[in-house]
Amino acid sequence: MNEGADDGGGAGGAARSPGCGPEGDGFVPSALGTREHWDAVYKRELQTFQEYGDTGEIWFGEESMTRLIRWMQKHKIPLDASVLDIGTGNGVFLVELAKFGFSDVTGIDYSPSAIQLSQNIIEKEGLSNIKLKVEDFLNPSTKLSGFHICIDKGTFDAISLNPDNAIEKRKQYVESLSRVLKVKGFFLITSCNWTKEELLDEFSEGFELFEELPTPKFSFGGRSGNSVAALVFQKT
């Protein structure tokens, strides 16, 4: 449920596109927040990969992957640290982590087609040390635990758009994150729907801001801001 087209949006006080940001107590419901949507997306992408070898798009672009890996390198995250990619989509970020040298990486997605696509791409790259699981992060299995690093590039955004009680699902997400991440572990989130201040509020219980990562800025109509927010939280 992660890799896909970037819908833009706003953060850092910038104007948002319609449907990319909260209104009142929640977000405007969208098909982007449903499992059915992502199942259909990854069935198409799986077929495209099988026919043409096209891995599909990368949500937030290659720059977002480089930004996160650069942060992990800067803070000397051990290459054997356990890393979880929440909503791995086509698994391209897992491939980049493995190529960089990380040896304990896991990708989860609630779409079986996404996991199958990831598996095909990983096999094409000749990599064998990547674990993949069909998991609903809002109801994770007990075996999903003990991670040093958890990464989210767009999954929390999608959950926020779910037409079926998104507010409760966001709470479930935070609870699940707290269960799977080790104490003092790091959570790296990239979002186009949430500002830094809003993310600080969403993850205020059990997490503290460790660092804000630099993201591209834009100017429009006399206003400027960031097109995405990228934050690192640490579990307390």
Q: Under CATH, the topology of the domain at 31-181 is which?
A: Rossmann fold
**Using DSSP, what is the number of strands?**
11
Q: Please report the distance between the alpha carbons of the first and last residues.
A: 27 Å
pLDDT averaged over residues: 82
Low-confidence stretches: 2-25
SSE pattern, N- to C-terminal: EEHHEHEHEEHHEHEEEE
- Helicity, as a percent range: 25-40%
Tell me the Rg in angstroms.
17 Å
InterPro entries: Efm4/METTL10 (IPR026635), Methyltranfer_dom (IPR025714), SAM-dependent_MTases_sf (IPR029063)
Function: Protein-lysine methyltransferase that selectively catalyzes the trimethylation of EEF1A at 'Lys-318'.
Region (Disordered): 1-29
Keywords: Cytoplasm, Methyltransferase, Nucleus, S-adenosyl-L-methionine, Transferase
Would you mind describing this structure in some detail?
This protein is an alpha/beta fold and 236 residues long. It has a domain of 151 residues: Vaccinia Virus protein VP39 (Rossmann fold), CATH 3.40.50. It contains seven helices and eleven strands. The strands form three sheets. It has a seven-stranded mixed β-sheet with strand order 5-4-3-6-7-11-8, with helices on both faces. Helix 3 links the parallel strand 3 and strand 4. Helix 1 runs parallel beside helix 4. The longest helix has 18 residues. It is globular, with a radius of gyration of 17 Å. The two termini are 27 Å apart.
